[in-house]
Amino acid sequence: MATTVGPAQNTPRTTLAKPGLAPPAVIPPALEIWAPDPPTWGQRMIPKGIRSAMADLGLWQEPRPLKPSYHLIQVIEVLTRYGWCQSFDFSPTGRMCIRGAQTFLESTGHVTAIDRGKAVNYLQTQLARQGVKMRFWEWNDLSHNTFRGVEATISAASDMARKNGD
């Protein structure tokens, strides 16, 4: 702590030394697309056809589906924000596995079924490069896996997709 004299009042004022960088308390608007909020109860109750009509009238903004490389990065962000788990697509506490995060993103319109399938192919190709011969959701559940390992594999798959133009 340091004591200084304020210029206007000529009174002592105590200031704290600046702490190191801390993560923001709120997700910056530019990053919100990467880890979307779950749809509200009301949004889940509106059928897709009505949502599309509302979007055409400018009353609703549908999420923009992302390419496979961006979808894989978004999967990492969802797992970071809501938590990663094993053995469940969606755990009772709201955590998700890789497949659960993809399902969540597809259900909220952040990826199409076709681009999700492409992302899965890139993920499976990356696992094959690592010598893994099982489906990605089975690999996710292996007891020796950590979130950092899962994150690195998904990131490598995203890099591969980006290099291929997806």
TrEMBL record:
InterPro entries: DUF6197. Residues 1-14 have a biased composition (Polar residues). Residues 1-22 are annotated as: Disordered. This is Uncharacterized protein. It comes from Streptomyces caniferus.
